[in-house]
Protein: Protein-tyrosine-phosphatase
Organism: Saccharothrix ecbatanensis
Amino acid sequence: MTGTSEHRRHDLSVDQQLALRTAAVRLRESFDGVFGAETIERFLYSSYDQFAAHSTIPNFLPLLAERFARQRLHALARVEGHHQDGKPTVLFLCVHNAGRSQMALGFFQHLAGDAAVAWSGGSEPGFEINPSAIEAMAERGIDITGEFPKPWTEEIIRAADVVVTMGCGDACPVYPGKRYLDWTLDDPAGKDVADVRPVRDEIERRVRALLAELDVPAA
């Protein structure tokens, strides 16, 4: 497979190599007629690299790589005009992609449903979602345990109609002609659930306001 030799430094196990080959097959089936095998494998392995350097759960790396590669390929399809559904696309960015941006993503997806698209990312992705953020969102009936901290990439930025930044400052990417919103919110890192609730509630208020601006009905 293209790129396998380049990733020997990660000491891929036989199971990981098999999992990545299987992931590549699934991605090729999903993007058949849109992207060739070389592009798909390049995105898959570069996504793997994004997590391999600091992951503490190597057995899950192929799955994370596949999920992130799928998101990136969907974004690239939008950028290149292969997929035009007219849905507003929003990207939520914070530092670690472990608290604020994940809660915003959770509210946006819950309220917008299939009427809009949302992604999230971090300038310095953490290792796991903030447990207090998970608990605070669960109190609202929103499960964000299936998400994971991830970086932003160029195609994801380019595909977004609106980029919402939350505390990443100069590390947040700036592309000319892109609409940016900067939300000043307390960082929930290291806080207990009681301290995260006000941040959660403010995020919900802002997400609802953003959906109204985008003419997306909130559930």
In short: The chain has two domains: 5-79, 89-213. Helices lie at 14-30, 37-52, 61-79, 100-112, 131-138, 154-159, 193-213. The radius of gyration is 18 Å. Residues 193-213 form the longest helix (21 residues).
